[in-house]
């Protein structure tokens, strides 16, 4: 019998009463490995109500105790690291090494949440006026909501609920229905770590569940990672209902290659950054911008990409796994064909990729386009597959203009031996995360994930110090005390001997 995925409501793992169950499939085989519910309206309401009740208690728990929960949690995550990664590989198709990276980057954020006391300190000053003091506190908001995508089912939930809960909030997680097993395992370990009943709730479902949560009056903050259209909907709906929202959206990330860069470093990094994880990550490099004579390296780039092959999660020679579902594969193949029809030169075509022993997998091989123009759909849309586009320009200024005219601003990188070129690039580029000789500049958790423009809707970003500001409110107190009111008398005097 196929496993039915539980939900976590009010501290209990419960089986939904829903009449609608969604199959969870292995992307390499299409075998159904579980069924996930579309939660009922009553289940959503009960989860929110019990999250509110949990918050009313948790907000007054000492910050040191909140930190200790996170310390126990990160220890459990490390203990079960490989087990979680194997489960993640089963439902996403990721290679085991890629899955382990997914889990570890999440653990790093939990470690940051252990430092919540220092991160959430307020400010104080004496004598802002004569014998008047001023000081500020950070206080938790209430019930927070996280809606996470399929492509990082460990890392992105761990971006959200540990930081929010460490700040004193309660949290409702709505993970992707395409790979819910990993988030549920994270939740089980959180309960095992000693998290109080109801502080974390996990609901499953499709857009009906999401829409019910977005407008719920008891939910005060919403975190989201996903596609542009959904991010726009969540941001607009949430803010229209007077909620705090951070919505991370799509990307079209460019790598600029200067002629003075180290050629082999460029090629090695560009291969991994473009087709790693099957290109299914918002920080993937999908456009290579060759400046001047560096365009001569495109042939060697093609040869290197041709050596990469997809495969099953436990195939140690595989560069990446299958795409998440047949619809994702079909979308990528459609865009590849549109690129060909528009006149781009497909010098390496992965459309007919076959993996021995897995005839039903969602495979797309490494694909490389040259002669790409900015009006083509393959340039304008986020492909979210192992497809790399090559553009050629004569100068760094042209490269900067090209990227700044693209509507997305998630990540970019430049490879160069010139400090002056790197300084000019990082200063002038209108992108939130910039790598210098680093292909995928995802910041470590003591910084924040800072996408710009159409890649992000909101004000405060994920993890780092900005997460503390997002999940808390600041209260400022101005106080004056009158010395004439100091009690005097024999019982108020300390006698020194």
From TrEMBL:
It holds the Pfam family Aldedh. Keywords: Oxidoreductase. CDD domains: ALDH_F6_MMSDH. InterPro entries: Ald_DH/histidinol_DH (IPR016161), Ald_DH_C (IPR016163), Ald_DH_N (IPR016162), Aldehyde_DH_dom (IPR015590), MeMal-semiAld_DH (IPR010061). Residues 15-477 form the Aldehyde dehydrogenase domain. Belongs to the aldehyde dehydrogenase family. This is CoA-acylating methylmalonate-semialdehyde dehydrogenase. It comes from Marinomonas phaeophyticola.
């Amino acid at each position: 019998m196929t496993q039915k995925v539980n939900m976590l409501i009010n501290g209990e793992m419960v089986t939904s009463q829903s009449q609608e169950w969604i199959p969870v499939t292995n992307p390499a085989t299409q075998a159904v490995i579980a069924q996930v519910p579309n939660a009922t309206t009553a289940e959503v309401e009960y989860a929110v109500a019990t999250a509110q009740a949990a918050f009313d208690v948790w907000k007054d728990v000492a910050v040191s105790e909140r930190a200790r929960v996170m310390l126990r949690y990160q220890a459990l995550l490390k203990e079960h690291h490989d087990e979680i990664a194997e489960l993640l590989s089963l439902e996403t198709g990721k290679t085991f090494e890629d899955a382990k990276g997914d889990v570890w980057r999440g653990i790093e954020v939990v470690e940051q949440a252990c430092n919540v006391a220092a991160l959430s300190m307020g400010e104080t000053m004496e004598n802002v006026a004569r014998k008047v003091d001023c000081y500020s506190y950070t206080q938790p908001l209430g019930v927070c909501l996280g809606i996470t995508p399929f492509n990082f089912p460990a890392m992105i939930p761990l971006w959200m609920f540990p930081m929010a809960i460490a700040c004193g909030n309660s949290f409702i997680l709505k993970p992707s229905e395409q790979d819910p097993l990993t988030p549920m395992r994270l939740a089980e370990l959180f309960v095992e770590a000693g998290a109080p009943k109801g502080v974390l709730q996990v609901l499953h479902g499709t857009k009906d569940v999401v829409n019910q949560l977005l407008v719920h009056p008891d939910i005060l903050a919403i975190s989201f990672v996903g596609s542009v259209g959904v991010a726009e909907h969540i941001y607009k709906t949430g803010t229209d209902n007077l909620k705090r929202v951070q919505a991370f959206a799509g990307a079209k990330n460019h790598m600029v290659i200067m002629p003075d860069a180290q050629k082999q470093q460029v090629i090695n990094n560009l291969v991994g950054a473009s087709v790693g994880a099957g290109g299914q990550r918002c920080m993937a490099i999908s456009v290579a911008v060759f400046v001047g004579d560096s365009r001569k390296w495109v042939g060697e780039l093609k040869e290197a990409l041709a050596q990469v092959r997809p495969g099953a999660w436990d195939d140690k020679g595989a560069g990446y796994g299958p795409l998440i579902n047949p619809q994702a594969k079909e979308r990528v193949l459609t865009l590849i064909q549109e690129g060909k029809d528009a006149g781009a030169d497909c010098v390496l075509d992965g459309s007919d990729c076959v993996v021995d022993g897995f005839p039903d997998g969602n495979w797309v091989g490494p694909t490389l386009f040259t002669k790409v123009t900015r009006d083509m759909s393959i340039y304008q849309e986020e492909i979210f597959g192992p497809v790399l586009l090559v553009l050629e320009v004569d100068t760094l200024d042209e490269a900067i203009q090209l990227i700044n005219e693209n509507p997305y601003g998630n990540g970019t990188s430049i490879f160069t031996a010139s400090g002056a070129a790197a300084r000019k690039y990082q200063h002038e580029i209108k992108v939130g995360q910039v790598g210098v000789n680093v292909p995928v500049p995802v910041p470590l958790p003591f910084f924040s994930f800072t996408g710009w423009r159409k890649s992000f809707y909101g004000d405060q970003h994920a993890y780092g110090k900005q997460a503390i500001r997002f999940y808390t409110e600041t209260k400022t107190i101005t106080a004056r005390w009158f010395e004439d009111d100091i009690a005097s008398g024999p019982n108020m005097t300390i006698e020194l001997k």
